[in-house]
């Protein structure tokens, strides 16, 4: 296919990393290009597809699911007993959907539906049968990243069984995934654990400043002390477990707890105090 002639015929053609809504995507000489759907007739799309050197980004079934999830159709292609969504955030150099599809399919060892999104995101739809356990992505994350030589990040939804709610869940989950990947560098985040990651986004810079200073007082600048206190809270106030996690002596951990309580007045045995201290520490990092 002559790319220069295509550019003359379709001035709005552009190079892309992933399939984009409203565009017809195809591959030329190993690179992915897109033309606005409004610029093409069905006959022109068929002609380009015949001469392009790529497989379609989406299968027929995947396209049907995209239409349902984006509310272009009212009925799903078929019912699902249980399902969940997984968004994989891809590095910028991940430009070969065929290799990604093959590697992901081999690593997961079960059928998945693939939805390629702009902004370097791949959405997987996992169908879960009645007697089947969902895949634990913590177990395959490093294997998959090493195989592709890419640092992948995952946002995993809860498991659902109401297919009628899938479009609403999909819309919320895609929007939330963009926020999650923006505010945290964790390799994998589950929906049930995402609230704390997203809370800092709900506060203005001014709010974060006043709340953190009010709760943490002078300790706000003592990063080592706050790291210890955060770990104490994450281990439910267990000093021994905290010391083990931080490779510290138990007495050193207790000394830091006492120091923090003396400077802030926050009792680390009080549940309400622990929650607000933990949130305040998250606001510092946001």
UniProtKB/TrEMBL annotation:
Residues 225-282 form the PucR C-terminal helix-turn-helix domain. InterPro entries: CdaR-like_regulators, Homeodomain-like_sf, PucR_C-HTH_dom, PucR_C-HTH_sf. It comes from Piscibacillus halophilus. This is PucR C-terminal helix-turn-helix domain-containing protein. Pfam families: HTH_30. Transmembrane segments: none annotated. It comes from the Bacteria.
């Amino acid at each position: 296919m002559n790319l220069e002639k295509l550019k003359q015929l379709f001035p709005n053609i552009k190079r892309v990393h992933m399939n984009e809504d409203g565009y017809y995507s195809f591959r030329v000489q190993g690179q992915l290009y897109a033309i606005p759907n409004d610029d093409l007739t069905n006959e022109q799309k068929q002609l380009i597809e015949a001469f392009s050197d790529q497989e379609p980004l989406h299968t027929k079934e995947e396209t049907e699911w995209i239409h349902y999830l984006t509310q272009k159709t009212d009925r799903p292609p078929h019912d699902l007993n249980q399902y969940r969504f997984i968004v994989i955030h891809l590095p910028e150099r991940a430009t070969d959907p065929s290799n990604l599809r093959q590697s992901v399919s081999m690593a997961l060892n079960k059928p998945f539906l693939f939805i390629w999104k702009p902004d370097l995101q791949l959405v997987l739809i996992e169908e879960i049968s009645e007697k089947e356990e969902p895949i634990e992505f913590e177990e395959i994350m490093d294997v998959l990243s090493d195989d592709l030589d890419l640092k992948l990040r995952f946002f995993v939804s809860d498991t659902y069984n109401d297919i009628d709610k899938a479009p609403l869940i999909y819309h919320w989950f895609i929007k939330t995934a963009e926020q999650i990947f923006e505010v945290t560098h964790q390799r994998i985040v589950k929906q049930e654990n995402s609230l704390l990651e997203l809370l800092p986004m709900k506060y203005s810079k001014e709010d974060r400043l006043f709340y953190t200073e009010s709760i943490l007082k002078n300790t706000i600048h003592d990063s080592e002390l706050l790291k210890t206190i955060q770990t104490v809270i994450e281990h439910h106030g267990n000093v021994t477990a905290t010391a083990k996690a931080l490779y510290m002596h138990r007495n050193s951990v207790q000394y830091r707890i006492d120091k923090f309580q003396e400077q802030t007045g926050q009792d680390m045995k009080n549940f309400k105090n622990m929650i607000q201290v933990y949130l305040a520490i998250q606001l510092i990092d946001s």
